[in-house]
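2.7 Reproducibility. Because tokenized structures are sensitive to small changes in the input, we list the exact sequence used for Pectinesterase, including any N-terminal residues retained from the expression construct. No trimming or masking was applied before prediction.
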Amino acid sequence: MKGAVIGASTVLVVAVVATICVVSFRGSGNGERDEGEMSTSVKSIKSFCQPVDYRETCEKALKAAAGNATSPTDLAKAIFKVTSDRIEKAVRESAVLNELKNDPRTSVALDNCRELLDYAIDDLKTTFDRLGGFEMTNFKSAVDDLRTWLSSALTYQETCLDGFDNTTTAAAAKMRKALNSSQELTENILALVDEFSETLANLGIPSFHRRLLAEHAGGVPSWMPDAKRRLLKVSPGEKGFKPDVTVAKDGSGDFKTINAALAKVPVKSATTYVMYVKAGTYREYVSVPRNVTNLVMIGDGATKTVITGDKSFMMNITTKDTATMEAIGNGFLMRGIGVENTAGAKNHQAVALRVQSDMSAFYQCQFDGYQDTLYTHTSRQYYRDCVITGTIDFIFGNAQVVFQNCLIQVRKCMDNQQNIVTAQGRKERRSAGGTVIHNCTIAPHPEFEKSAGKLRTFLGRPWKEHSRTLYIQSEIGGFIDPKGWLPWLGDFGLNTCYYAEVENHGPGADTSKRVKWRGVKNVTYQHALQKYTVESFIQGQHWLPQLGVPFIPGLLPQNQSGRIH
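Resulting structure tokens (single pass, no recycling of outputs):
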């Protein structure tokens, strides 16, 4: 894998660093050291590293890895190589391996790290492999992709460390030390991309100035085979519905279990493959693996086709591993299926669905649980006409995710607890991650209605330092605490989070008594329109049409929220 990273196309990265070098040299005239005393290589490295957040880490890494390299191309290759090398080194940490026998949770956490860090390396590789030969007019799209993949690589490293929570060995500290430089280097690459993006925006590159108020979009692109295009427009039982494979518990399909069908799905498919899962309760743990791409999974309805499980954190496994279902392979679409975790409130973290599939969508689905129901882990995700139920942090993670027309229902937590809808996990300020809840309804679940006045409920809390969540043009029920937002621990993240409420309505939408943290922002309609829409935040106009899912590209007309579209 490492060789593939270095050998892949560097066209975009060369363009990035070439631009950065120009900017850097312009700003380096008052440097602390006479440039004439430095070698050409050292000067090139200092220039390359100037815009980043962790300059010392960048310079030390390149001096050790780049040799006498001076060209932006060679330095770009070197920064990716050394970042991948540092992650791989963390996986091999023998000191951590030797402590496995002391604590079961540590053993599980390390197994998770191997998997997660492999994802991180893969996303670094993807930034090279998929962006060669782009056109000038595609710069904006290319930069959006880069930011998503690099943000995901950062999140996987952080999730590895999260897995050591509540372990009893010294493994957590050692793993954090092992990953420190790779995290800083990954964030440095993000800084270079941000600088590049800003420079091009200032130059007026056409693709950086796109239409934001768009008509409602749907349909599928002309390049998709006609049979597939028709299939995504119809539902089970309708004329023309002919899936590639059918799952049925009663034996009337090709397979009786979802996992059996998944084992036969073509890998790395560039075309849509449709799996129809007939009505029934499927008691299995489902994973759509990384090499299964462009899979469409269609059920008979979110309360008729249900995937169920009951794993929880109390079973000495990580939160990630409690998921009843996980979607990893890119381009995944689920329609008309329910996923639940029945572990209950007393068993704490218990995920129903975990998603890291880039450009994935969920339409007319339902996700039921209590704490940590929906783990929107990484990448670009879209949820439309879905129901999500839970108690504590039940929408969490660091994906770039937009919810539209969804019903978010708060269930009854335990008497010594309080409900929190979101716990967004953006650790780095440059990360692309964030949760946008647009034109949704936040309401009490029927089981909670009688207790809604006794148990407090909040819109969210900052799981990580730069947590980012926005409620836009949504209906907020009166059971939401007037303070709105809840601290995680002390003053952690209160000044660095990014929380906003824009044009909401309903008895709980009054913001006059909200907490006054620095991180709670007063965001205007126009700013939300520019940055936090399906089109601008997850670039949905480029990939949602091919999935056949309806979506609102921008916002509803100002002062006209509350309508279902």
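Residues 2-208 form a domain with the Butyryl-CoA Dehydrogenase, subunit A; domain 3 fold (CATH 1.20.140.40).
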